[in-house]
Inverse folding.
């Protein structure tokens, strides 16, 4: 089944998966109203625009992603996924009386949506749709919206001074709202012009947008300096003819307003990270915006983004004091010659290298650490205990470790076969300017930890976390007079401090339960598992190195065109090798049990927060075909970042697979827990 030049499933996936990448620019595309950035107010916190939806659909269809969703082998999954997303979309769009299917039938030009904070702490959603050539369908849609709202027991209300085209419905109270959540007037408003539809959950904002459809407004989004800076920088990289998606968000402003308007159903203890980021100077990031295009310049996907974070007034644009407090850690100096090291194995799924001023970051983290913990001086206490505690490693963290590190971090990723919940592998490598001192510091630290054991790998001293998952349970005997103090507690420790350390250690062990650490190749190497570290330590370079692979060389050439000079970050990835572990876990319904870093983060976000529970998988992947059936649709990706006086400019691309031959994995199948 097809409509508007795109399969129904592809349309859904395009809107949900790729629109969530968020993109932007400022073109005067002909339509029934001026560009939407001149219609939405300056208080817009998030904005998404598709100026040429027909062209976007055609380009998407030509990419490997479009071919993937059109593959007969994917039909069952695409149709099932469409139903799931449609149901979820109806839940999200129901307050506007809309469905995803509706939005696919009426656009004749730009489709744009905005989250507007007209009232402090309250976000309103407004959509404008160019319905040129689809006026009859738009009229039918308006009738359907009204009927759906009436079925939800909404009542039509009159608004004084409103234009006759504006229709407003009052919704009944939200039965699912939290009892102590602030009550909000739940309304849906829509207005139909000869060639435009405006719909939203705030009658005033819908009315204002409708009133300025012909000429725009003066206090508009386009007057936001961050918006104009980001969209001007990224817009020139992708022309309007490429039918790009455009986007912009005020990250902290949006987060604060969303948090205020959507309190959790259950009050949760713990730090308020949105408030903490604001207090710690991260409001220096004024806005993020960019553009995304499909099938452009030989790329399946192309994206450009600017994080707008200019230096505070009177500060050096690239100096360590560019921002205040913990935000000073956001210092990523550009460098030349960023490429995979000789010891990065050829078969890796991905490689990323980032330039980061770690000395400044360490000097800036104190206030953030204390703010998260909720007690001033905690960071200093931790650092002091590492140096002074007679039972600890007795190291000066600043002098013995941080001062001995360089400015480059490397991330290597891969997986082992057969695919399971613990298949993904990571290595974090941090440049060491004084490897011997770093190695000595690591040895002292690990030797003081009873959960770490020293082993030898290829002549290197490696410290591995002892796997206690199969350990014999200990018997706890209740003694008269109270509990026996834990061995790692000291006289004078308060219960809260002890519990805090215990929780921190449990989180570390859960995130990397089989970690191994060493110093080699001039880097501090932290691996998720011993087997990936063994592979890294055994790679001699040359033909065995990632840098010699043909697909890396082709992708690196594209990245060099995007960033011909210095850069702060460069990245390479093989889509098939990156996606395969998640794909297979989805097929088996095992994604909630994933032990990968990504899987654990996803589970933390989507779970109910109750300890010991496993969340229900949100996507039914049981109808996905064998991965080898669809592997050919996945190519390679590249990403780069450059530090600028305005913030950070990011660009990347996805290249079609072409004739790329899959790299043969050279590491053995890993035993469980290795």
């Amino acid at each position: 089944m097809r409509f508007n030049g795109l399969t129904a499933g592809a349309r859904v996936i395009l809107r949900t998966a790729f629109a969530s990448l968020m993109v932007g620019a400022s073109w005067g595309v002909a339509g029934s109203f001026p560009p939407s950035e001149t219609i939405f107010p300056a208080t817009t916190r998030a904005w998404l625009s598709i100026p040429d939806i027909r062209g976007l659909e055609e380009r998407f269809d030509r990419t490997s992603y479009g071919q993937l969703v059109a593959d007969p082998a994917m039909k069952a999954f695409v149709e099932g996924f469409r139903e799931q997303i449609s149901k979820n979309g109806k839940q999200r769009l129901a307050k506007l009386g809309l469905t995803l299917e509706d939005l696919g039938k009426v656009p004749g030009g730009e489709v744009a949506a905005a989250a507007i904070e007209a009232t402090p702490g309250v976000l309103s959603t407004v959509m404008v749709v160019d319905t040129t050539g689809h006026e009859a369908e738009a009229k039918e849609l308006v009738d359907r919206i009204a009927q759906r709202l009436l079925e939800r027991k909404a009542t039509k209300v009159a608004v004084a001074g409103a234009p006759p085209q504006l229709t407003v419905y009052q919704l009944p109270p939200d039965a699912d709202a939290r009892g102590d959540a602030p009550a909000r007037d739940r309304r849906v408003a829509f207005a139909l012009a000869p060639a435009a539809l405006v719909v939203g959950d705030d009658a005033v904002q819908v009315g204002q947008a409708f009133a300025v459809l012909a000429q725009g407004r003066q206090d508009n989004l386009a007057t936001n300096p961050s918006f104009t800076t980001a969209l001007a920088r990224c817009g020139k990289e992708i022309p309007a003819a490429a039918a790009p998606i455009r986007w912009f968000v005020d990250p902290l402003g949006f987060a604060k307003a969303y948090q205020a308007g959507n309190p959790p159903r259950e009050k949760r203890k713990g730090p308020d990270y949105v408030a903490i980021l604001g207090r710690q100077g991260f409001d220096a990031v004024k806005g993020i915006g960019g553009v995304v295009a499909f099938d452009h310049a030989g790329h399946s996907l192309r994206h450009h983004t600017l994080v707008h974070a200019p230096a505070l007034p009177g500060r050096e644009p690239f100096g360590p004091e560019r921002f205040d407090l913990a935000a000073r850690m956001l210092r990523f100096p550009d460098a030349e010659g960023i490429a995979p090291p000789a010891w990065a194995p050829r078969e890796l799924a991905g490689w990323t290298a980032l330039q980061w001023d770690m000395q400044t970051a360490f000097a800036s983290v104190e206030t953030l650490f204390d703010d998260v913990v909720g007690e001033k001086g905690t960071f200093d206490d931790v650092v002091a205990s590492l140096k002074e505690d007679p039972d600890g490693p007795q190291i000066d963290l600043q002098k013995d470790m941080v001062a001995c590190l360089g400015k480059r971090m490397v991330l290597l990723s891969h997986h082992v076969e057969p695919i399971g919940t613990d298949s993904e592998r990571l290595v974090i490598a941090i440049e060491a300017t004084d490897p011997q001192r770093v190695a000595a510091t690591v040895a002292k630290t690990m030797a003081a930890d009873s959960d770490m054991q020293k082993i030898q790998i290829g002549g290197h001293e490696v410290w591995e976390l002892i796997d206690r998952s199969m350990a014999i349970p200990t018997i706890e005997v209740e003694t008269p007079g109270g509990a026996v103090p834990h061995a790692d507690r000291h006289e004078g420790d308060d219960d809260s401090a002890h519990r805090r350390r215990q929780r921190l250690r449990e989180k570390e062990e859960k995130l990397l339960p089989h970690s191994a650490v060493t110093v080699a190749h001039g880097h501090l190497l932290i691996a998720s598992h011993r087997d990936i570290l063994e592979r890294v330590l055994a790679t001699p370079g040359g033909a065995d190195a990632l840098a010699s692979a043909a697909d890396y060389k082709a992708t690196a050439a594209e990245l060099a065109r995007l960033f011909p000079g210095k850069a702060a970050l460069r990245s390479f990835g093989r889509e098939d090798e990156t996606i395969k572990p998640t794909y297979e876990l989805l097929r088996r319904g095992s994604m909630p049990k994933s032990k990968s870093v990504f899987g654990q983060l996803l589970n933390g976000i989507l779970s109910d927060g109750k300890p010991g529970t496993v969340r229900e998988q949100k996507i039914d992947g049981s109808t996905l075909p064998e991965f080898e059936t669809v592997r050919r649709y996945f190519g390679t990706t590249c990403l780069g970042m450059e530090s600028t006086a305005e913030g950070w400019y990011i660009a990347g691309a996805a290249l079609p697979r072409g004739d790329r031959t899959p790299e043969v994995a050279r590491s053995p199948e890993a035993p469980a827990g290795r």
